[in-house]
Amino acid sequence: MGTENKILEEENRFKVKNSIQSYLGAIFLMAITAIGPGFLMQTTVFTQKTGASFGFVILASVVIDIAVQINVWRIIIASGKRGQEIGNMVFPGLGYFISILIVMGGLCFNIGNIAGAALGLNVLFGLDITIAAVISGCIALSIFCFKRVGEIMDKFVSTFGIVRILLALFVAVAALPPVREAAVKTVMPDQIDIMALVTLVGGSVGGYITFSGGHRLLDSGISGIKHVAQATRSAISGILITGVMRIILFLGALGVITHGYFIDPANPAASVFQAAAGDIGYKLFGIVIWSAGTTSVIGCAYTSVSFLKSFSPKIDEYYSKIIIGFIIFSTLVFVIVGQPVRVLVIVGTINGFILPLALASILVGAYNKKIVGEYRHPIWMTVAGACVAVLMGWMSIHTVITQFLQ
């Protein structure tokens, strides 16, 4: 009996350890994928445009992001089904349509991620952008050449995510930002930039990012009503990590702008790091944007391809190979097209359009017993999610009309 008890205890410890690693992996995959190169560029561009009032946009985006992710994670885990599978059960073909939009949006994002990684190696070693893009693409796809893909991916993403946050924090402190002014304008802004809000939300929980954490948990074998509460806490944790990084970058950019330093429109985020900490800051920017680009390439490819699984069982069989092909294609497109900074700012807005439709399908699915079984989704979460879907739909349309009229 003693031996049997020890074996059971070891098995339970192993299960608990794997469960914790799976949740941490999902948290960091969602959070760190959201903190990509576009994240760096967008924060700097919009801080320069709106000043301390950009703090309000960050606060609003965090609230919206939490409303989105707690709905999506809970319903995916309770049902044990991927986002596209829920969509198809809500309305035949809807899941396939959303999958196509997300894969296309993910491809656009991944081109931007490759661009960011290439900029990072260019800053660090002076490499030609094309060569730097190829090297970064090869490093990212090498993760998927191993048998224990999930474990290696989780460790790579979380390690570089922590490094990135610490380096950005150092630069933010060195920039001596007006913290008091930022705090006041966060709750009482002089202006509210709708395009900035759409872009931030689209870049942090839009498109494939909406489903990255939930799909990662399913791949780890975590599903069912008993896991819903932990999934909720994990979703909130991921958004808070994203929010902390956004605030750090915002304060760094605000400090630099307040002190009158020049922001180079060709590479605005690099200007912030360099102005705050000189040549060391510029090199730190290279590390931050390379790690941001590479980890986002991994997370984007992994989640985007997960949406293709519903099209054919063969997708699951050749999952890693298709992801590698996705990364190679993204790299080649960037090498041919170029225009990194413009791509990085635009892709967040594109993903803002996908969010309302994807979120609406998930919310409808929450009340279909064929999808969620005996799980009962809280009404207040549904109301919050529906408000976000309507708000994001309206703001996305408003942004396009405004830009078109200009």
TrEMBL record:
One of its GO terms (molecular function) is manganese ion transmembrane transporter activity. Signal peptide: none annotated. The chain crosses the membrane at residues 20-40, 52-73, 94-117, 123-144, 156-176, 196-218, 239-262, 282-306, 318-337, 343-367, 379-401. The keyword Transmembrane helix applies. Its main location: membrane. It is found in: Membrane. Keywords: Membrane, Transmembrane, Transmembrane helix. GO terms for biological process: iron ion transmembrane transport. Pfam families: Nramp. InterPro entries: NRAMP_fam. It is a multi-pass membrane protein. It comes from the Bacteria. This is Mn2+ and Fe2+ transporters of the NRAMP family. It comes from Megasphaera paucivorans.
